Amino acid sequence: MTVGLFSYLAALLAYLLLTVLLITSWRGRLMGLFAVLAAVATAAWAMVNAILLSDLRLPAQLPAIVELARNGAWLIFLAHILVADHEQQASRLWIRAAWGMIGLGGLLTVVLPAIVASLDRASSMATNATLLGWTLQAIVGLLLVEQVFRNRRLEKRGEIKHLCLGLGAVFAYDLFFYSDALLMHRIDPGLWEARGIVNALIVPLIAVSAARNPSWSLEVHVSRHVVFHSATLSGAGIYLMAMAAAGYYIRYFGGTWGALLQIAFLFSAGIFLLLLLFSGQWRAQMRVLLSRHFFSFKYDYREEWLRFTEALSRRGASLPEAIVTALGGIVDSPGGMLWVMNEYGVYELMERVNLPEPGILVQPAEHPMVHFMMRLGWVVDLDEYRLRPELYEDFDLPEWLEELPAAWLIIPLLFRDQMCGFVVLARSRIKRSFNWEDRSLLRTAGHQAASYVAQHLADQALIRARQFEAFSQLSAYVAHDLKNLLAQQSLIVSNAEKHKHNPAFIEDVITTIKSSVERMNRLMNQLRDGVRGEPQTCVRLDDVIREAIAAHADRNPKPQTESLREGLRMKVDKERLRTIFGHLIQNAQEATRPDGSVRIRLDREGRNAVIDIEDDGIGMSPEFIRDRLFRPFDSTKGLTGMGIGAFESREFVRLLGGDLMVRSHPGRGTLFRVFLPCDEPASGPAETRDD
C-alpha cells in the first residue's frame, strides 16, 4: 500500500464515519442536510482518489467532478451558516455568490477540459483553466470561512470556531497546492498524496462544531477517553514530524556538525515527549482542557439549573432541608448536613438529612478545614483526600467528620467573600466518578445556595428584631398607660388628707381604685400574651367619648361637648379606643390654661365618623407637627412624658382604617380630627347634648 493510498483511505473512512453519525442523528432540518451532503461529497472524493492510486481506470472527467462536488458542498454549507447571521437581502447575496462560484468552477474544471478533449487536442490552456478554477474555489472558501467567523456573535463563536479552523486549514492547504501547481505547471505528488490525511484530520473538529450547534439538529457525542487517546497519538505524531523536519534542516544547514546536531536534537525532543506523556499532572490538565473546549458537557446545564432552583423552592420543605437535598440531587447523594455560621462566629448544625447525629453541634471557625475552604473555595472530595492528601495542603479533617464514614463531599457556601456555611454530602447512591465538571457545577450551585442561606439568616434576624420591637412597643404602651394610672393614684393620695372624712370622696376613691385595678390586670395580661388590646365589640362612639370625658373631668379646663351625634357604631376594642380619646383630651388639657376651653364634637361625613377635639391653648408650629409630634419617645413634658401618646393614637386609628389629622396655630390652639369608619346609615338627625 502506497502512502497516497493510505492517506485517501483514511479520509474515506473518517468521512464515512462522520456521515453515519450525521445521518443517524439528523432530525430533518435544512442545515443538517447540507452537513450530510458535504460529508458524503468528501467521502466520494476520497474514494475516487483512492481508486486512482490503485491503478484502476476511471472516466477522465470523474476526478474533476468529485473535486467540484466536494468544494461546492462545503461552499454551500458555509454560505447557509452565514445566512443565519445576516438579514434576508445579504443572505441571498452570499447564496448566489456560492452558486456562482460553483458554476464558474464547473465551467473551468469540467466543461472546458471536456470540450478540449472532444477536439482531440492536448492544450495547456485546459490544464491551466482547471487549476485556476480550483484556486478560485479555495480562495472563495477561505473568504466564506472568514465571514462565517467574523459575523458570528461573539458569545456564539465557540460553537463554530472548530469548523472554521478545520475548513480554513483545508482551504489554505488547497490554495497552496493549486497555486503551486498553477505556477510550476505541474502537480507535486507529495502534496497531492497528503491531501487525504489533511482532510481526515479535520473530521473531529467538524464533529465538535456539529455537537455544539443545536440548529443543525445534531447530537454528535464522542467519548472523551477514546478521543483523548487518539488525540494524544495524533499529537505525538505531529510533534515527531515537526521535530524530524527541524532535525532535517539542522542537518542540511549544519555542515560537518549537522549529523551530530540532528541526533542530539531528536534525542532531546524524544526525551521531552516521553516526560510529557508520562506526567500525570500534564495528562490531567490536558484532559480538563480538552473536555472543556472540545467536547459536549457531561451535564445539560440549563436542565440542571432549572432542577436545582425548583428543588430550592419546593413546597413542604424548610429552606435548610431544601438546600441539602438540592445540592445532593446534582450528584445523586441521598442526604447531608448543613452547617451555618451564627452570630457568634461559629458554625452550628442547622439541618441533617439521612446522616447520623455528629459528635458535636458546633464547628469552630478557626479549624484548618474552614480556613482551607475559605481560602481556596474548593469542593473537598474526602475519598480523594484520604488517597492523596498532598493535594489538600493545610487541610485537616475534624474528628466528627473522621468518624462519619458516609461523608463524601464538603461544599463551601461562599457569599460576598464570606463563608456563611458549608454542606457535607453523603456518599452517592451509585458508584460514580467525580471530576472537574462535577466540582465546577457544585461550586457554582454552592454560591447560589449561599445567597439563599444568607437571605434565610437575614430573615431570621429580622423576625427576632421585629419580635423584640413589638415587645418593646407593647411595653412602651403599657408603661404609658401605667403612668396615667399612677397619676390618678397620686391625685387620690394628694386629696385624701383633706377629704378622708367625706363619704362621697371615699366612694369615688373606691370606684377609681377598682377601675385602676381592672385596667392594670388587663395590662398585665397584655404583657403576658404579647397582644395589645381586647376582643372587638360593637360600640356606640358617643358612649365611648362620654366615658373618656368623664375620666378627665377632674381637672381644668373641663372638656365640653358641643355636639355628639348619637347612634354611630363601629366594631372596635372599646377600652383601647377610650384610651386613645383620653390621650387626646389629656393632651388638650395640658396645652391649655385652666380658664381655657376644650371642646369635643362627633358628626358624620360620608362613611366616616368625625371626632373633633379642639382647644384654645398654646398651639404648635407646622415644623413641630411635621418633625416631632408623631415621633415616638420624643416628648416636650420632660421626665413626666414618654412621647408615645400621639404616636399610639394615630397608629391605632389607622389600624382601624381611619386617620388622624392635626391643624394648629401657635398661640391660637389646636384641632385634632379623628376619622373612623362607622356602621350607622347616613340618615338621622344629629343630637346635641351639653354635659
From TrEMBL:
Gene3D superfamilies: 1.10.287.130, 3.30.450.40, Histidine kinase-like ATPase, C-terminal domain (3.30.565.10). The keyword Ribosomal protein does not apply. Its EC number is 2.7.13.3. It is an enzyme of class 2 (transferase). Keywords: ATP-binding, Kinase, Membrane, Nucleotide-binding, Phosphoprotein, Transferase, Transmembrane, Transmembrane helix, Two-component regulatory system. Residues 477-680 form the Histidine kinase domain. CDD domains: HisKA (cd00082). The keyword Plastid does not apply. The chain crosses the membrane at residues 6-23, 30-48, 68-85, 97-119, 125-145, 165-184, 226-250, 256-278. Coiled coil: none annotated. PROSITE patterns: HIS_KIN. SMART domains: GAF, HATPase_c, HisKA. It catalyses: ATP + protein L-histidine = ADP + protein N-phospho-L-histidine. InterPro entries: GAF (IPR003018), GAF-like_dom_sf (IPR029016), HATPase_C_sf (IPR036890), HATPase_dom (IPR003594), His_kinase_dom (IPR005467), HisK_dim/P_dom (IPR003661), HisK_dim/P_sf (IPR036097), Sig_transdc_His_kin-like_C (IPR004358). It holds the Pfam family HATPase_c. GO terms for molecular function: ATP binding; phosphorelay sensor kinase activity. This is histidine kinase. It comes from Thiocystis violascens (strain ATCC 17096 / DSM 198 / 6111) (Chromatium violascens).
